[in-house]
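#onboarding

Welcome to the new folks! Below is a worked example of what a typical request in this channel looks like: someone posts a single protein sequence, and someone else replies with the predicted structure as tokens. Don't worry about understanding the tokens yet, we'll cover that in week two.

Example request:
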Amino acid sequence: MNPSKSTLRKYSGLLVAFFRASAMADLEYRLNIVMKVFTDIIWYVAQLSVFEVLFKHTNSISGWTLESMRVFMSVLFLVDAFWMLIFQENLDRFSDKVRRGDLDMVLAKPVNAQFMMSVQKMSTPYLVNVVLTFAWMIYSLTELPGGFEAARLLTLLISVPCGLAIAYGLRFVFSATALIFARAENIVYVWYQLYRLAMRPDTVYPPWLRYLVLTLLPVGFIASVPTQLILGLQTLSFLALAILVAAIVLWLSTLYWRFAMRFYSSASS
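Example response:
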């Protein structure tokens, strides 16, 4: 068998196994699933209500109408739902795993350690969020004045995974800092402040900040750029740029992981 195919099959099998194990663990606490979905629905409504109220008093904000803003929020919610499903629990507990010595067990396995630390425990209740946010996206697209070109959905299938990859890569760098500092919670807090910039379209920011969120700290590619591509507000060159930025961020996260591992001392040492 081709080595690359063998590796792909191996890691795909691990993802399926992790998902099954996570689902079995989550189903033991069914009320917790209901509460997670309920609280997230409240968060979605709270975020949407801000713009619904604002657009009662204006027709446009930096070129964004109420209908296009709904599409933006749907993309943001969809990326966030996949993030919560796959990565959130793993990276939020990264520091604890390092302190408890769980990383020692991961490093002893014949599997990429970054992969294991990133996806070992999935939050399967967020599958409901994926369905809900995708439904909201379909509704938002159908409400666009003049209709929506179905062909643009292809950009969605490419740009949304790119946005998710960028969010993961940036967040992983902050999490991996726990290998260097014993207590990295405050550094991770910086990530949440940075992520807040992704929760608004890049065009609402002043030029210097817009440049920043599209270059040095490319959180603008998480939801803003994918939305503009879906709405036809950007050329396909931006789609190629999104792919490039996602590849660079993932590569840098791997480099940082290898760098941070130099400072790691086994919990048993």
